[in-house]
Amino acid sequence: MQYENERYIKWVEDSAAYIRRTLGGFQPELAIVLGSGLGGLADRLQNPIPVEYADIPGFPRSTVAGHAGRFVAGYIGKKPVICMQGRFHYYEGYDLRTVTLPVRVLHALGVDSIILTNAAGGVNLSFVPGDLMVIDDHINLTGQSPLIGPNLEGWGQRFTDLSTAYDKEYRALAHQKAAELGFSLQSGVYTWMTGPTYETPAEIRMVRTLGGDAVGMSTVPEAMVARHMGMRVLGISCITNMAAGILDQPLSHEEVSETAGKVTEKFTALIEAVAQAI
Ligand code: HPA
User: Fold this and answer.
1) Which tens digits make up the pLDDT trace of 167-212?
2) CA atoms within a 13 Å half-sphere pointing along the CA-CB vector of 9
3) Does residue 256 have a pLDDT over 90?
4) Which whole-number Å values give the CA distances from 4 to 116, 143, 152, 222, in the listed order?
5) Ligand 1 mean position to 111 CA, how many Å?
6) What is the mean pLDDT of the chain?
7) Secondary structure (3-state) at 131
8) Which of 15, 17, 84, 274 is deepest in the core (most CB within 10 A)?
9) Which residues contact 162 (CB under 8 A, 6 or more apart)?
10) Cα-to-centroid distance, 199 and ligand 1 (Å)
C-alpha cells in the first residue's frame, strides 16, 4: 500500500511537471473546474495556454459529452487562473484517486484556492432551472471517499475536518458579486450520488428529507481532496433541471446541457467577478 502511495505521488508530480513546463513561467493562483455545459468560461481567458489531457503522459481522459478534456491557463483581468474544461467522474469507472488526481496536480502547481462548478438537479422546490446555487455544505450519499486508503502524509492529515468545507468568505463574496451584477444566488446543500442513472423520485424525496437542496454526480470528492490539502473551496451549482419526480417529465443530458448553455452569460459574469476578487 505504501508502494501504491509512492506511485500515486509520482503520477501527480509527473503530471504537474509536464503542465509546469507547458505553462513556461505562468503561475496560476486559482483553479476553476468547469461542469457540464459550463466550459465556455475557459474560452474567454486572456493569453490562454491550453494543455490537453491527452498530451499529459499517463493522464486520464474525459469521456462525457459536453466535457472537453483540457486545462486552459490564462488571465481573468489581472488574476492568473487555470481552468479545467472537463473533469472525471466516479460513474465513468475511474477510481476516486483518479477522479481527484487533477486537484492534487493543481495543488502541486501551487494553486491554493479552487472554484468547483457543476450542473445539478434542483431538489429544493423553491428553485427553478437556471438558478445558480452557492454550495454551503454537502451530503455524501455514495458511501465512498477518495481519502480511503493509506493517508498521503505529505499532503494532509488522516482525519480531514469538513465543518467548513466550503469557504465562508468565498461564499459571502459570491453573493456580494452576484448582487453587484444585479441578480441573486440560491444557497444550499449539494448531495453527491454516484450516477450514472438520474435518481428515482423516491430517492429525491429522501434527499429532500435529509436536507439536500440539489443533487449531482461530481464535486464532493474534489472538495474533500482539496480540503485534505488545506485548499480553500468555493462550490457553485447550476440548477439545470428539477430533480426526478418533481415535474411530470423525464430527465435528459440534453436538458442539462441546454439549461447550462442558457445561463452561460450569468455564470461567466459571476465566476469572472469572483475570481478577480479572490
Ligand atoms: N441528478 C443528478 N445529477 C445531475 C442532475 C440530476 O437531476 N442534473 C444535472 N446533474
Assistant:
1) 999 999 999 999 999 999 999 999 999 999 999 999 999 999 999 9
2) 13
3) no
4) 27, 22, 10, 20
5) 28
6) 95
7) coil
8) 84
9) 224, 227
10) 8
Q: Assess whether 187 carries a catalytic annotation.
A: no
d(CA 224, CA 242) in angstroms, rounded, equals: 26
Q: Where are the alpha helices (DSSP H) in the chain?
A: 2-23, 96-99, 101-108, 168-181, 201-210, 220-228, 253-262, 264-277
Query: Quick check: 54 and 61 in contact, CB under 8 A?
Result: yes
Residue 90 Cα to chain centre, angstroms: 13
90 among known catalytic residues: no
Please state which architecture CATH assigns to domain 2-277.
3-Layer(aba) Sandwich (3.40)
| 237 flagged as catalytic | no
First to last CA, the chain: 38
Ligand 1 neighbourhood includes 123 CB (under 6 angstroms): no
Residue 150's DSSP bridge partners are none
Q: Which three cell numbers stand for residue 257?
A: 446541457
